[in-house]
Design brief:
By secondary structure, the protein is mainly α. The protein has helices spanning about 10-35, 40-65, 75-95. Helix 1 (about 10-35) packs antiparallel against helix 2 and helix 1 packs parallel to helix 3. The chain is elongated.
């Protein structure tokens, strides 16, 4: 259970945890999209974005370290919804079993 947000520090930590969750989700989604891409330039673009997003994760972990709290994710419902939508669209395009 998430502790109550009763200070600006608690708010900051909660927001960083949501960013951490979002970036973790994006790493997985970008890897999936890059694997599904049939156009080499699109695949390369997605691989570059994946590397950028992985770097973002590392920076967020540095923020946790600076705040002296362990890295932890709080669910990011907005990004989860976007990924759910993209998975649905991919399922419509890519035949099952491939």
């Amino acid at each position: 259970m998430t502790p109550p947000i009763d200070s600006f520090r608690a708010l900051l930590i909660e927001q960083v945890r949501e960013l951490y969750d979002a970036e973790q989700l994006l790493v997985g989604a970008l890897a999936d999209l890059a694997g599904c891409a049939t156009d080499p330039s699109l695949s390369a673009f997605l691989q570059t974005r994946l590397a950028d997003t992985s770097a973002h994760l590392a920076r967020i972990e540095e923020i946790f370290s600076g705040l002296k709290v362990p890295p932890a994710a709080s669910p990011s419902s907005g990004v989860r919804g976007l990924i759910r939508d993209s998975e649905r669209h991919i399922a419509e395009i890519v035949p099952s079993g491939t």
